[in-house]
Amino acid sequence: MPRELPLELWGIVFSYLHSMDWEPTRELPLPDKDDLAACTLVSRMWSAVARPHLFRDITYSFRPVPEDVTPNDQGDYCDTLEKYECLDPARDESRFKTFPMFFNFVSSSPVAQNSIRRLRLDGWPSTDEEEGTDYYPTLDAEPFVALLQMLPRLCVLHLFLINVVHPPARNAPMAHPSLRRLYISSVSNTDGFQREWEDVEPANILDCFVGLEELQLDLPNEPSYKAEAHEDWPAMQIGRLILGDSPCLSDGLHKYLLDVRRVESVPIVDIDRLYPETDIDLIGDLGCEELRLRVPNLVEDYEEPEPLSLSCFEQLERLVFKLSAPLIGRTQPDPHAFEVSLFSQFVHHIHLLESDLPGLVEVTIHLQGLRVPSTPRRIPKGVQIKPPLSGLEDELQEFDTVLTDIADTFGLQDITFSVNGTDPSIISTEDLEDLIRLWCPQLAEKKGYTIIRTNEGDDFYKCYTDHFLA
């Protein structure tokens, strides 16, 4: 076995053994047997064909580094683990992982450097028992940028509860050769525990990049964007901006993008939570050509929401509404899971029919979660599927009317319906066509519809980021 195990994995094996002060006469604890068995399995697969796949997707969770401790050459803190309580209580005397450990592993592994294409760094908080507060991992910008420069084929980077500090003085942000998607979140759900951090400074992270095809922000605590404009820096380019669990576009982010980084326009803006107090004019300043809106439940969440207007989107060409759709063939269906009534309310709330959108040429209804039964079957034409329609006759009629009015108001030839095309459990195009005829007979007869399949979905980390690796 020693001759079969690659050098890149020997450090991992010795790390487990050293952390336990293991001796050959003492039996390994069960968890470490599993870890060593995994290393053995990897070594057996260590072929030229398998290596890129072994390191393609990496998720690394680590703890904060003690500030007054200098790591050794291996990036460990063996001399001060007990003092700083960096031991994992679930595994006797096992060390918490730290960023220097991962950095040194990547820097010593040419195979990992050339194979990692999707990387997720997840910060674990540590608790100061005297103050009763949590503190989270922070990374100096210099090693953070150095790590990215060691990964020339990295396409997707997700950062959870990670803060980058001490940005170095440099002439310009990094132009990474392959990075296409960046996700920054102050909310993490590692191992089922949800954590939020208010002190994430996304500007320090964004300052490291000159352009991104897709940027997603999940920052519900409205972080500050402390950054200075640099006239010698090139204007930042963003192809798609996704505002997830965030209070839409804050003043700080608006100023950072337009004034500090001189973003001229963002072609696609995707908003997951559109709040009534949202200053929608800030979003209009981005000059987007496509606006994607998750339809919220304004009635349940807000008593009397202030109306919004989309007239500020002078260059808008495509408008996409994301709706949760019913599950076909459920044993106990919830008819109100289909947000058709919410859609009608939302259209009136944003004054869509009254908005001046001269360039609008396409309206799309993206149906999220529209899946087939566990045993797929063809839906016969003309047969009414009662579970998803039960109790929704009036809502569906209004849904049909509103869609027809939208098509008439903006002179659209049809309305587009989209579903995720990469998930095999999603309903087929033929079955969806049958359902649309049942849901929207007026639209189908008067205007028509188009069905497309996209890469959109709920899980943005792996299932719906594969197209970035192509």
UniProtKB/TrEMBL annotation:
It comes from the Eukaryota. This is F-box domain-containing protein. It comes from Phanerochaete sordida.
